[in-house]
Inverse folding.
């Protein structure tokens, strides 16, 4: 390996240190560290506007947001979801005592193959949990139509789509509710953090979520439900307020990286690039490339990049239905597209500060050899 710096798939976006320090001063002055303090409330308000959603509740991380959202909706039985996602999506379903049923993905944008959805619905199905994977927004119209016909809830894992819009509407406004992640590795971070949003204002659901993220406590002398501790603290909320001021620049810089990859890799047989739809405003969170009948396979390219200190990631390998913890319950061959994509896709480094010269270097390693 050369003496060059290691390049990872992403790098956390940080605001100027002075901006964060100024907010810390305030935390020291008030000694209010958590439990829905003023930064928490301010971030909530600003995010509701930024995301163009009717209501929002903040959480300590995206996973607990999803887990508590599923609890709040009081689901039972089977939940249809995708095996091509991060562990969190299915784990949140299982940890609520629900049974995940895996629907295969399409090979255009890797979201749920809606043509297969209806066949998986049984009398036990109560919800669908699709994922806007890599920032590709699912076929929200078709999914809603199927859900309405069968009286199912739709809960989107929108962890990859911070700030995105579909036909001008905030991505967090589709279905019954959506979950966002503000983890350090995401486009917008609060160090660790997450949120649940709804399109129309939903006071009842938000009150339930507030209760569940605070141990189920309703008042000083009343505990109404078996809740958890899912509260976002003031240090995280302050980081969110700082990052929110700069997130537009972060996305612009990511777009430049995306465009450079597109210029360098377009038109190469066997190298399948992301195809962006004009009705979606993207956030450029990921740059997934699928190597399908290319002269090197995905794992060879992964190793070649690693030799040069470039850590691309195999998002998402293995598929969730191949995990050791689910292995004896599912057959990964039931979702052949997800299986194939898990073996063929590599997500390349993309973050605001990634120099375009490094993008060129990464592309050269992929194209040579
Ligand atoms: C990051 C992520 C999550 C979990 O979010 P955390 O904030 O890390 O808990 C859930 N689903 C997907 C698809 C993710 O990428």
């Amino acid at each position: 390996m050369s003496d060059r710096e290691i390049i990872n798939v992403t790098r956390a976006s940080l605001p100027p240190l002075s901006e964060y320090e100024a907010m810390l001063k305030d935390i020291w002055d008030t000694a209010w560290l958590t439990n829905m303090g003023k930064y928490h409330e301010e971030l909530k308000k600003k995010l509701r506007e930024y995301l163009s959603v009717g209501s929002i509740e903040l959480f300590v991380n995206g996973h607990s947001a999803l887990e508590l959202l599923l609890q709040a909706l009081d689901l039972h039985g089977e939940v249809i979801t995708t095996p091509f996602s991060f562990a969190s999506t299915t784990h949140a379903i299982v940890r609520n005592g629900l049974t995940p049923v895996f629907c295969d993905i399409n090979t255009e944008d890797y979201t749920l193959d809606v043509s297969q959805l209806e066949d998986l619905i049984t009398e036990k199905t109560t919800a669908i949990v699709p994922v806007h994977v890599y920032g590709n927004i699912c076929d929200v119209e078709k999914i809603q139509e199927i859900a309405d016909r069968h009286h199912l809830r739709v809960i989107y894992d929108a962890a990859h789509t911070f700030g995105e819009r579909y036909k001008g509407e905030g991505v967090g406004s589709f279905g019954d509710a959506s979950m966002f992640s503000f983890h350090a590795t995401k486009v917008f971070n609060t160090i660790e953090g997450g949120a649940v949003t709804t399109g129309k204002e939903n006071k009842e659901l938000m009150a339930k979520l507030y209760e569940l993220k605070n141990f189920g406590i309703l008042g000083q002398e009343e505990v109404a439900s078996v809740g958890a501790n899912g509260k976002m603290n003031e240090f995280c909320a302050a980081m969110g307020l700082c990052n929110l001021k700069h997130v537009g620049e972060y996305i612009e810089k990511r777009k430049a990286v995306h465009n450079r990859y597109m210029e360098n890799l377009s038109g190469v047989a066997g190298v399948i690039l992301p195809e962006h739809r004009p009705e979606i405003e993207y956030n450029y969170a990921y740059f997934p490339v699928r190597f399908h009948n290319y002269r090197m396979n995905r794992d060879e390219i992964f190793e070649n990049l690693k030799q040069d200190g470039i850590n691309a990631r195999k998002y998402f390998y293995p598929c969730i239905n191949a995990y050791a913890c689910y292995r004896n319950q599912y057959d990964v061959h039931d979702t052949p597209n997800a299986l194939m994509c898990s073996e063929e896709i590599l997500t390349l480094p993309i973050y605001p500060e990634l120099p375009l010269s490094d993008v060129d270097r990464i592309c050269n390693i992929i194209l040579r050899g």
Notes: The mean pLDDT is 97.
